[in-house]
Amino acid sequence: MIAFKEVNKIYPNGVRGLRDVDFEMRRGEFVALIGLSGAGKSTLLRTVNGITEPTSGEVEVDGRVVGGSREDLRRLRGRIGMIFQGFNLVGPSTVQHNVIVGRLSHKHPVLGTLGLFNRRDYQLVERALDRVGLANKLHQRADQLSGGQQQRVAIARALVQEPSVLLADEPVASLDPVSTDRVMSDLRRVRDELELTVLVSLHSVPLARRWATRIIGMRDGMVVFDGTPQEATDTRLGEIYGDAYRAMNEAQQLPESRGSDGKGPAEGGEDCDVEECRTP
Ligand SMILES: Nc1ncnc2c1ncn2[C@@H]1O[C@H](COP(=O)(O)OP(=O)(O)OP(=O)(O)O)[C@@H](O)[C@H]1O
Q1: pLDDT tens digits for 178-233?
Q2: Whose CA is nearest to atom 8 of ligand 1?
Q3: What is d(CA 268, CA 272) in angstroms, rounded to the nearest whole number?
Q4: Who is most buried in 10, 46, 186, 193, counting CB within 10 A?
Q5: Cβ atoms < 10 Å from Cβ of 88
Q6: Is the dihedral of CA 196, 197, 199, 204 positive or negative?
Q7: pLDDT mean over 87-91
Q8: Which of 233, 199, 204 shows the shortest CA–CA distance to 29?
Q9: What is the pLDDT at residue 205?
Q10: Which of UniProt's keywords are assigned here (predicted)?
């Protein structure tokens, strides 16, 4: 469970990142945060794992207030997986190495840097890669994978933390529509299978409608919409965001070319192994 209690963030330069943010997320919810650039989505996400400290108010994760000593924060971050737009992988290292790094949050700092991982850690890596359909890439270099595959490696890295919460900051912003679909569906599936609470910032309203169980819309640091995907109609969001709504709605269209079953990735897409499919 995540609870925001009257959370405000004013940056040192006077910019108000968050204004009176107050809502709760139940375990297992998949919430999409939408809003234009600068609306406060990243700021909000970063208050959940304590990277950004609220100026006033509190954020709670699983009943504990985010903050406290360095050790408190380390323990909290161990239960929160984070996925970034740029994947944050070590390109020349193997997929296995990139994923096992997620176990460091459960290690004593010194043991972790010595690379002392045990059998269970390696088993967790294999299971996590299996969940995102990349078990066969274990020994491949991360930078030889497509962008979408790299993001799924990043999801696996978050999963080996055995988290209760997954945060994803624009995880599909740099991906093509087919890879986007695969990454979103992996996020949604691991949430279903592991009962994770997932909070994802997205630029695209169609994507939010398609994958989230709840949509929270932000503007100028405030929550201006909180409802189901069905309630997030064009009319309603158009009223809230005005002319800017069109830009948000068109940020990323859903895949047009899909597999023959209408669900899987189209040929030559996400799991394509040929050179042209890889990100530069
Ligand atoms: N470290 C910082 N110092 C000062 N201002 C900041 C800082 N980080 C963010 N801001 C400001 O806070 C506001 C919210 O920014 P934030 O990055 O949370 O928005 P966002 O909705 O995630 O935007 P984007 O979609 O572009 O990532 C913006 O006005 C931004 O310029």
Answers
A1: 999 999 999 999 999 999 999 999 989 999 999 999 999 999 999 999 999 999 99
A2: 43
A3: 5
A4: 186
A5: 13
A6: positive
A7: 92
A8: 199
A9: 93
A10: ATP-binding, Cell membrane, Membrane, Nucleotide-binding, Translocase, Transport
Question: Locate tokens 């002392």: which residue?
Answer: 116
Chain-centroid distance, C-alpha 241:
24
Q: State if residue 42 touches ligand 1 by the CB under 6 angstroms criterion.
A: yes
Residue indicated by tokens 């609870």:
3
Torsion over CA: 103, 104, 105, 107 (sign): positive
**Of 168, 223, 232, 174, nearest to 200 (Cα)?**
168
CA distances from 251 to 35, 149, 254 (A): 11, 22, 10
Query: Which atom of ligand 1 has the smallest separation from the CA of 46?
Result: 18
Tokens for 156?
């696996």
Domain ranges of the chain: 2-277
State the residue for tokens 């903050």.
67
Angle between helices 119-131 and 177-194 (to 10 degrees): 120
Which residue has a Cα nearest atom 18 of ligand 1? 40
CATH of domain 2-277: 3.40.50.300
Tens of pLDDT, residues 144-164 = 999 999 999 999 999 999 999
SS3 208: helix
Ligand 1 centre and the CA of 60: distance in Å? Answer: 22
Task: Find out whether the beta carbon of 41 lies less than 6 Å from any atom of ligand 1.
Answer: yes
Q: For 9, list phi and psi in degrees, rounded to 5.
A: -135, 120
In angstroms, what is the span from residue 190 Cα to ligand 1's centroid? 29
DSSP 258: B
Q: Tell whether the model's pLDDT for residue 81 goes beyond 70.
A: yes
Q: How many Cβ atoms sit within 10 Å of the Cβ of residue 87?
A: 24
Question: Please, are residues 32 and 168 in contact by the beta-carbon 8 Å criterion?
Answer: no
